[in-house]
Write a structure and sequence with these properties.
The protein contains 6 helices and 6 strands; from the N terminus they run E-H-E-H-H-E-H-E-H-E-E-H. It is of the alpha/beta class. It has a single domain, classed as Flavodoxin domain (Rossmann fold, 3-Layer(aba) Sandwich), CATH 3.40.50.
Amino acid sequence: MKVLAINGSPHIHGNTSTGIELVKEELALHGIELEKFDLGLQVIRGCTACNHCAKTKSGKCVFDDDPVNEGIDKIAQADAVLLASPVHYSGITGTMKSFLDRAFFATSRAPVNPFRHKVAAAFVCVRRAGGLPAFQSLLHYLTYAEMILATGSYWPVLYGAAPGEVLKDQEGTAVLKEISRNMAWILKNMKSGTTPPPQKEPKPSMNFIRE
């Protein structure tokens, strides 16, 4: 089994990467592999709301000159996904948001969403404040795609400024390891389970304005 960790930080060896390594070490104890997909230094355009993916229902973005479609394929092939971002102005990084907006919207328009019912988790790293709003923004994508959340006994916000400083956040790292163990447990139960997932039912699309 494999988990894909998407790193939204521009610092490849920063605190967000350190947190991912903690998850990797914990998952390895359960025989689960983790692959890191670094986005932070790449140029990723935002969604242009062209609706091409909704028309073609290909599950891919029409723009194929950046890592978005590659990331879609990697998530589809993985058993679980971990979203990780530093906090910029109480939110996730711009590159991370551009990637997630396009990847999750394009796949949601496919006849079968390849992200649906995959196991997922998220965490953020912050110097001082804004961690919870950033963490919540990551959850929006996971819940929208009907992914199965691996959670812990507290919010996974890791505190630190200098690279590696999050390791001093004993409670934060403990929660992250707890989430990793829960993710491994869910993955193993899903692999051995025999109950098929519920069928996807169509839903109406409505605006708030009524004539």
